[in-house]
Hints:
Layout: H1 16-23, H2 39-42, H3 45-49, H4 55-64, H5 67-71, H6 84-88, H7 95-108, H8 114-126, H9 134-142, H10 157-169, H11 171-174
Helix pairs in contact: 4-7
Amino acid sequence: MSDTDMKVIKTSDLDLAFREEIMKEHGAEKLSMCFNCTGCTAGCTMAEHEPNYNIRQLLRMANLGMREELLNHPYLWNCTTCYKCQERCPQGVHNVDILLKIRTMAVHSGIMLDKHRKVAQLMANTGHAVPINDDNKEKRKKLGMGELPETVHKYPDALEEVHKIVRITGFDKLTEAQS
């Protein structure tokens, strides 16, 4: 790595309150116990498919309080939540749980991938992440299943309950498109 590839981290840019907010989550209090042993990355399923993915780097950024860089990190959403890293950690750091907390913080800050926003909006509007269209109905029939699953597609009155939950929880506001 050349000197031009290295990013200088300024202590004035670090947000220790962000780190403390993460560590309030149950299980996340062990974040500071990570000593970069590489056990999490060595067993990471995602890293096998995406060489630049490194959960250890994300945890280190969280530990340092690198709020903006972490919430906007291109690999924040790559974890498949298989929990291998968490099970392998000799310090008992809840890697995946911490990452899920950081993702939640990103969403509450208006940061969400467009494809995730689209799925969330589908869920909020239709009660399904994958709507049942005519093609899906036909496939279900060929498999010997009912045309509609036992969901709001079959019981449309329940959709109003979904909409009520979406409004009460503020999920509709979280999934709005950001400008």
